[in-house]
Amino acid sequence: MAVATPTAVRKQIQAGQADPVYLLQGEDEIEKSALAADFAELVDEGLRAFNVERIHVGDLTTGDKLADGVATLVSAVRTLPMMVPRRVVSVMQAETLLMPKRESEAATRALEQLENLLRQPEVQTTLVFVATSVDKRSRIYKLFQKHATIVECGAVEDLADAERWVRTRVAVAGAEIEPAAARMIAERAGPDVKRLRADIDRLMLYALGQTRITADDVREVVGPAALQDDWAMTNAIEASQAGEALRQLALMLDAGAAPEKILGQLGWVVRAKFPQIAPQEVRTAVDALFRTDLDLKRSAGDPRVLLERLVVELCAGKRSRSLGSRRW
To answer: Which residues contact 81 (CB under 8 A, 6 or more apart)?
Structure first.
């Protein structure tokens, strides 16, 4: 039928004009899950218990289980809606159903039933398949191309998409973000998903434990993209300014600085400055440096995340020492 964006599908849902069958695919699990949940808006809230059904098929690993699973799915789709114009049936982990690992007579029959369902969908039911990916060369995918709306999840097309992307990620982390704060991040990163993800990861690390993220938090971490000098990050660590240090780290990485070079600067500030500004934290800081160095060498994580964690630890140690000095 068509290829649609998540934004376009949400407009269909808001208008109450959903298509009979959708395939939500892509690596962005959060986007897929959020969009699949939005389909419930097609049904009045008080009647969703009778008309919204979610089926998990991840454990359908044998032909017999596939046959039973498809039979359950067909029955759910063909059930008439109760007191509303349509039902919604979502199939989670659908790649297991659409591309079974083991072929057998039972699996073949199950796929045939599923193909018939795609060819003749139930007009009073919206059927939503949620999958990581489907082989585009397969017969089942070609049927989706002909009879379903395919949605690629993970792409950010405009500022509105970026703001929604930010709000969704913060909500998944158990917090909420002020509209102005979400807009600020979206305007800074634009439709660059990689940069959006990095900014959100850095922001959530900075605001760890907070239930609400404010515009001030965003300014501290992902403010104006202006790198003052190569040593602005280490200066911020000396001043116990974790937000500024994280921001300067991001600017250095975005400008192409090698993680090893940045680690060298952090090593310098620990060796040259910590004995004077935080002597009780030197051993802990050195241990954190060695751990990060080892993790970088063995590729034990995203270099950006490893360096962000180290910066936060160094700022925390410096801050705890400074607070202790003030009490005296």
So the answer is: 43, 51, 87, 124, 125
Q: Find the mean pLDDT for residues 30-58.
A: 92
Amino acid at 243: G
- Segment 145-175, tens digit of pLDDT: 999 999 988 777 778 888 988 998 898 888 9
pLDDT at 322: 44
The residues, any chain, with a CB within 8 Å of residue 222's CB and separated by 6 or more, are: 184, 185, 188, 189, 199, 202, 203, 247, 250
Domains and CATH numbers, the chain: 2-152 (3.40.50.300), 156-223 (1.10.8.60), 225-328 (1.20.272)
Residue partners of 43: CB distance under 8 A and separation at least 6: 51, 52, 81, 84, 86, 87, 88
Q: Say if residue 207 is exposed, middle or buried (CB neighbours under 10 Å; 0-12, 13-18, 19+).
A: buried
Residue 192 has pLDDT above 80, yes or no: no
b/e 57-91 (16+ beta carbons within 10 angstroms → b): beebeebebbbebbeebbebbebebeebebbbbbb
**φ, ψ of residue 212 in degrees (nearest 5):** -135, 130
Residue 235: pLDDT above 50?
Answer: yes
Q: How far apart are CA 314 and CA 283, in angstroms?
A: 11
